[in-house]
UniProtKB/TrEMBL annotation, chain A:
This is NADH-quinone oxidoreductase subunit C. SUPFAM superfamilies: Nqo5-like. It is an enzyme of class 1 (oxidoreductase). Its EC number is 1.6.5.11. Residues 35-155 form the NADH:ubiquinone oxidoreductase 30kDa subunit domain. It comes from Acidianus infernus.
From TrEMBL, chain B:
One of its GO terms (molecular function) is NAD binding. The keyword Manganese does not apply. Keywords: NAD, Oxidoreductase, Translocase, Transport. Gene3D superfamilies: Cytochrome-c3 Hydrogenase, chain B (1.10.645.10). Belongs to the complex I 49 kDa subunit family. Residues 123-392 form the NADH-quinone oxidoreductase subunit D domain. This is NADH-quinone oxidoreductase subunit D. It comes from the Archaea. The keyword Metal-binding does not apply. Its EC number is 1.6.5.11. Pfam families: Complex1_49kDa (PF00346).
Length: 165, 392
């Protein structure tokens, strides 16, 4: 083809990140992700914000009990840059059971406020530097147990309940 | 007689059983009648859908994910199914996509009417409350005829939808559109142009464009602050890429603009409905791969005879491949996000559900700071905040 093909927005971002030494991968035209260690997360977040990702959609914690790790996923997207509006980028990192803490990204994206608070109370991950890291959804007397960790089992009722006697 | 002196500064609890707060407590720190700080205590209707999701099969989760916002269940249903479909890698037939848009827009109108009604009663305007709930009924009846259920419809399933459109539903929809167009004019006269309502909403809870982006506002609240963002346009799903509609955007960012955006969206939704009625293509309403599994007798009687899907056994406990999917839809209150992680078992390993009201928590908290105490209800109503949806 003689015509130069227009570069897709997602490829542009990947190239931009690569220039700054960050390896990211695209899953489809509108989804991308990158893995980062927790000491680099602030740096990466700042770069992402410069590119145009201006808000956090979700902060998700996923528990992996066999590896004694919790994965934290930040999904970010953009309102102000039209090309980026359809892209959701996932920034993934891991924290250890021994030291479940992570620098908070609220200073970069205010919209991480709710998600980080929820992850803190549901999974016990401390976000250092969060302006108000306290309980949000759970009752006040719910101490020391983290409901979204896999070792928190809920009682299930079977489909068929046997009648006693 | 001694007179007790009322302190200038103080704290005040609003809710959690206050008619002006829904199911949440707002701890307000007051100075005079100016709100200095406000603490939202949500979680009174927390149902732990995310945790329950790890213990249910994918299909069994459908009624659960709808529960948090029963007045917007089609969207909650659709977002979840879209994420599951991405993991399963299923293509949905054209007619089913149109039907999804149809149900979603009917639901959007019903949900906006609910929100306007609630805003009305917050501001002491009982007529709007009664009209909102009365007019909503018209649209709920269409949903009832289409899906067989009034609120939690469980209409959308992986690969398609459960029921087909019938001529009588089309007739009902046409009548409803006619009725609503007339009624919207009345709404304008009695509610929007009402001097009291205008006073209570204009210049109240102003959110600038930058603030809206920083706080991560969604939906009508975002668009009222001048950000032109709608998932239906940014990342079209269902049949939206083929439908012609506009996105109402306002610059003011106050409560009145937010109300206007929702108002105009109803008209746009009706436009979409008209197009769907006109253009809907013929064809199956479920992906071939699942349709083939329905036994021939049931196929003849139910699917071809009545346009109803009899769920094939596949759905009981399918195991999607390992992987993860993120899907979003534009629900009535804004962007709704699902993140599903599958480990190859019949249950999701992790289900993340970010609802529009969840993201309004931070917006609400920030908007309250510096407002007058009496304006808290105006801000609350104009944000269309729905506590159960935030709590999930």
């Amino acid at each position: 083809m003689s015509q130069t093909t227009v570069q897709k927005p997602i490829d542009k971002i990947l190239a931009e990140l690569k220039a700054k030494g960050i390896i990211a991968k695209a899953e489809s035209e509108s989804r991308g992700s990158l893995d980062v260690t927790k000491d680099k997360i602030i740096e990466v977040a700042k770069i992402m914000k410069e590119i145009g990702f201006d808000h956090v959609i979700a902060v998700t914690g996923i528990d992996f009990p066999e590896q004694q790790k919790i994965q934290i996923v930040y999904h970010v997207s953009s309102y102000s840059v039209e090309d980026l509006q359809k892209i959701i980028f996932a920034i993934k990192t891991y924290v250890d059971y021994k030291d479940p803490s992570l620098p908070s990204l609220t200073q970069i994206w205010g919209s991480a406020w709710t998600g980080e608070r929820e992850t803190y109370e549901m999974l016990g991950v401390r976000f250092e530097g969060h302006p108000q890291l306290s309980r949000l959804f759970l009752p006040e007397d719910f101490e020391g147990v983290y409901p979204l960790r896999k070792d928190f089992k809920i009682k299930l009722e079977g489909l068929f309940v046997d009648k006693p006697g | 007689m001694e007179v007790e002196v009322v302190p200038v500064q103080g704290e005040l609890n609003v809710g959690p059983q206050h008619p002006g707060s829904g199911h949440m407590r707002i701890l307000v720190k007051l100075n005079g009648d100016i709100v200095e700080d406000c603490e939202l205590d949500v979680g009174y209707v927390h149902r732990a859908v995310e945790k329950l999701g790890e213990n249910r099969n994918y299909m069994h989760l459908i009624p659960l994910v709808e529960r948090p916002a029963i007045l917007d269940s089609i969207h909650m249903n659709m977002g979840y199914i879209m994420a599951v479909e991405k993991i399963l890698n299923v293509d949905v037939p054209e007619r089913a996509l149109y039907l999804r848009s149809f149900a979603a827009e009917v639901n959007r109108i019903a949900s906006h009417l609910y929100g306007l009604g609630i805003l009305g009663i917050f501001l002491g305007h009982s007529t709007a409350f009664m009209w909102g709930f009365g007019d909503r009924e018209v649209w709920l009846q269409i949903l009832e005829a289409l899906t067989g259920a009034r609120v939690t419809n469980s209409y959308i399933i992986p690969g398609g939808v459960r029921r087909d459109l019938t001529p009588s539903i089309i007739e009902m929809t046409k009548k409803a559109i006619n009725y609503m167009r007339k009624k919207i004019k009345d709404w304008e006269k009695i509610f929007l142009k009402n001097p009291t309502i205008m006073d209570r909403l204009q210049n109240v809870g102003v959110m600038t464009r930058e603030q809206a982006i920083e706080w991560g506002a969604v939906g009508p609240n975002l668009r009222a602050s001048g950000v032109n963002f709608d998932v239906r346009k940014a990342e079209p799903y269902a049949a939206y890429s083929k439908l012609d509609f506009e996105i109402p955007v306002y610059k003011e960012g106050d409560g009145y603009a937010r109300t206007l955006v929702r108002f105009e969206e109803m008209e746009q939704s009706m436009r979409i409905l008209e197009q769907i009625i006109k253009d809907i293509p013929e064809g199956p309403i479920l992906a071939d791969r699942f349709l083939k599994q329905i036994p021939p007798i049931r196929m003849k009687k139910w699917v071809q005879g009545q346009g109803r899907i009899v769920l094939p056994g596949y759905y009981a406990s399918f195991r999607p491949p390992r992987g993860e999917a993120a899907a979003r839809v534009e629900a009535s209150r804004g962007e709704l996000f699902y993140y599903v992680v599958s480990d190859g078992s019949p249950k999701p390993y992790r289900l993340r559900m970010i609802t529009p009201s969840y993201r309004a928590i931070y917006v609400f908290k920030n908007l309250c700071k510096g407002a007058r105490y009496a304006d808290i209800v105006s801000i609350y109503g104009s944000l269309d905040y729905f506590p159960p949806e935030a709590d999930r």
